[in-house]
């Protein structure tokens, strides 16, 4: 009955769907009929074909009219009329953009009516990336060849390969030049993202987990005991720390075990073992149970020990008093008393106050008096027997200290005022008043203002210091350095202004043990001088300046070998500033000390131990000389100022000195720096001499202020032969030879200095090519590095020292060379500027220029002496040497050419040249700035003259003839040119003279050189033949270079330079001569062999250069100025040349078909075809996908064919065959095949499971009641018009194609697989596992219980009462279940025959059911 009702319901549902589906089919047919009716009215004119569109129609005009969408080609559209093209032209579409036309001239009818001159091609018209070609006889005269991925007349549009979108499954499409690119969402792959990625293929789930494939990811259903995204982690049951009391947890799969610490037991170590159960404690002590141990509490007994078994010791009764420490010894005890106590039990207090230690009636309090603690403030707060030893004194008022010994009455009342400091002093006090403040105070308490400085008489900037003495106010003067006296009125400053001054002092006998000391301040600029000398005979003590440093010298005797002690200080004290120095001798010590100013710390003094016992110091050091001595002479005399001179600590005041003891010493110090006014001229260095100055003049300047200079000697004025001769009149005895001078010249060569004796010339200095040359002893020659003939003044110096010669030029010193010593002897002769014999060829001739300050060692060689100095030589003879460094008139000879203006310089001139001329004499004309060449040519400037450079085009009848002008002097050893041609056999250049000839030609496309040159009698010479390694007749430019391998030789091999960087040079096998026979009288033919020859060149040539001389393309009448170069070839033929490189008009016939664009490649064309066309002339249709051959897929062009990428569920060449996934399925035991996405799945019947339903579900034991029909969850119908599918077991439709979102416990594309939670055998002890939805249930045997049957009911710890209770409850539950099952079966049978129809979930949610796909209802739906 149930089966019949199901069949009827299914048939009824099919009928409803068909009724709804037929009107939809009829509506679609009606729409197609209406669309087709648009073209039935024949709206297109002029034989245009009507094409259907989704919502409109299109007219496809027949050629030559353009194809215009939604256009009827009526007469109002000007583009469909042919009148826009004039004359014999036809209207053609460009093919670059719909509706764009060009005018195509008919062959042979070129004319202005066809606009043949409109060949405009501009990059801006086509954009930056497209190629623009000129299109002859078309308007606008150009066409754009678009790069791949662009279209439009100006390539302004990008080709959109994403319309329509070829990408599947929500992929993002991006249009590229080579086609669409699909960016897949996660979970899909393939060119069009049509393949769903099965993430479970790689078995990502571990530990026996089940993998569920999702879109872009996967889900792993883990076995019990595992977790993680891939079930890679074992669940750590120990993570919750189930083991108590520090037990160690051991993780197992889906379980754990505990290892308990000692003292605990139980499954989770929850039970603490009672160690006190054996009562281990003795003598009534309390036992305290602890972890794995116990403790005996002996506090309530007198016993000790672990178990309270040891009786108490003698110290237990605490016999020791006053905190003493008790120590047990062999059944007895001893007490260790703290300080202050004694006795066996430390019971006796030692009395520290019995000796009455406190004075001044102070009260003694012992620290052991416990009763006073808390009441006596001097005692601590609490009593401590450990610190009870000692006493403290309680002092009466006015006394303090540990024993009350200090009287504190004086300063406690603060008697001192105005910031003074109070100090106790002999039972009273003393006030220390402030010494630095605006108002000073004095008196006993510093309370009385000091007014002694009011109206004081301190002089010379002295500071006044007031005081108060016995009630009387007064003051004292603190003098500035250089003054003394009660009012600082006496000056202690004195000066030594002239050489030979001194001060002589006599000191009395003071005894042998007295210190000898002198202290003084001084200022001077002398680097070497004497400050003082003490002692004149025998022992002397002197203080000097040596090289600006202080030096103290003690000598036992004036003899040189006498015993001496010397001290020095490093400071520079000759700077004209004040310095104070002290010298001390006493008790075997010699001290030198710089007092002020000195910033060097330890370097400000120096000390030495001396042996003075044998010296009679007290008698020898009575006499002291300051600044000099009475012996006279200026050596070492002091010039400067001194002040504050102390001799043996006694101040020496100048006004007290006797006149007999003072020589040239004046009071005061009048000094200023004589160099501040800058008296030295010409960069002279000024030296301050205290009372004057000295100028150190640089060469060549002399005089007191360096204002004069040595007279310059002029040689070669007006190109005369000038020279001077000096004779050495004394013996120059020196180990160093030194020769120097100042030099100025513009001449490159000439003799400067020559030294000679009676036998030889042993030193020469001359100019050679503008550089200095020096030769010594006719052996070694040294050359300067820089040019000195630039008209500037140069300092020149030669030094020969210790066998080494060095040359110096200005500030540069050049390399040295080893030479023999140079010795200048008496009566040797020195020649300057030239020799007496008039030889002009030696050393480059006579010198022309100026010499100044010529010196030989320390002797001056003065051409025009200033004075009669004995340190100079005068010339014996001078010829045409004049004083001063004057210049001749270089412009008198009019050296400037071409109208240049001359300006004189020193021994030179400069030309101010007119425009377009250059050179020192304006001799060079810049011809190219005058534009001498025709507009098509480029001017190339030569050393003299110019050439016009251009490319020319040669036709069949073009041959140029050239002759050399007869003035060519160079050797012609090369031929260089560039060529462009497509002719395979042609003569490029030919010339012959007698047996000599040269031919450059093209033979079978290769460049060939044939050359024979040389003497006819030379049998070793033979014609040279060279072939290029690759063809040159390819329409491209090629650079040709033909060279002699050895251009300096009479005969040589010839080389052809590689035409390409990958080629090797081509070298001839034989040898021949050069091309000198072309210099004169030979016809040089260029471009062919004559008008009638078949070998004339068709192509282009650059200028041909023979030996670097150009063959010109323009004659004298074709250029604006004559070619004035000396070496040149002249053009003999008068025919003009065609400038530029122009080929035939190969695109005139429009050879490219189907709208292709013709590109001229020099006598060859190339077609750029529109998309969809190919071939040499665009004659092949390459758009094989234009007919949309792929029915259920995407078409891609493969050369001249195509390939189809099929949609899911289709196959075949054109994707025309629908794939039946379930054909040949392997579902067993009645399993139903479910169509899927490129796969299928098996829906298994009851009692079977597995991917192919080939695994039988285990039979349940007899005591397990299993429902005959397992519960079923609702289903969902999903999909679209093309495909639909069913989601089982409560699965929901997914956004991903052909996929379901499953509830927990189910898997598969359609949630058809119920995960078997019993697969891991979770039930223990023989329990039966019953698989349920997303869980399992264990049915245990009678003697086991628990969730996984883990509890053994027969265990000893389970009481019989509990077992009996469980058994009774189980029997009652079974009886109740049996009764309920019986009633339910009866009720169901009654409702099946008497009930009404109950709709399924699928019928209630009819919106989810698509009517175009009829499916079987789910198994759980039935009539009840």
Helix and strand arrangement:
Elements: H1 2-36, E1 49-52, E2 57-60, E3 89-93, E4 101-105, H2 123-126, E5 131-134, E6 142-145, E7 150-151, E8 157-158, E9 172-176, E10 179-183, E11 188-189, E12 195-196, E13 210-213, E14 218-221, E15 226-227, E16 233-234, E17 248-252, E18 255-259, E19 264-265, E20 271-272, E21 286-290, E22 293-297, E23 325-329, E24 332-336, E25 341-342, E26 348-349, E27 363-366, E28 391-394, E29 399-400, E30 406-407, E31 421-425, E32 428-432, E33 441-442, E34 448-449, E35 463-469, E36 472-478, E37 483-484, E38 490-491, E39 494-496, E40 502-506, E41 516-523, E42 529-534, E43 540-546, E44 549-555, E45 564-568, E46 579-586, E47 589-596, E48 605-609, H3 617-620, E49 623-626, E50 640-647, E51 650-652, E52 662-663, E53 665-667, E54 685-688, E55 693-696, E56 701-702, E57 708-709, E58 713-715, E59 723-727, E60 736-744, E61 750-756, E62 761-768, E63 771-776, E64 780-783, E65 794-801, E66 804-809, E67 812-813, E68 817-818, E69 829-832, E70 849-856, E71 859-861, E72 872-873, E73 875-879, E74 882-883, E75 901-905, E76 908-912, E77 917-918, ...
Parallel strand pairs: 71-72
Antiparallel strand pairs: 1-2, 3-4, 5-6, 7-8, 9-10, 11-12, 13-14, 15-16, 17-18, 19-20, 21-22, 23-24, 25-26, 27-28, 29-30, 31-32, 33-34, 35-36, 37-38, 39-50, 39-53, 40-49, 40-52, 41-46, 41-50, 42-43, 42-49, 43-44, 44-45, 46-47, 47-48, 50-51, 54-55, 56-57, 58-70, 58-74, 59-69, 59-73, 60-65, 60-70, ...
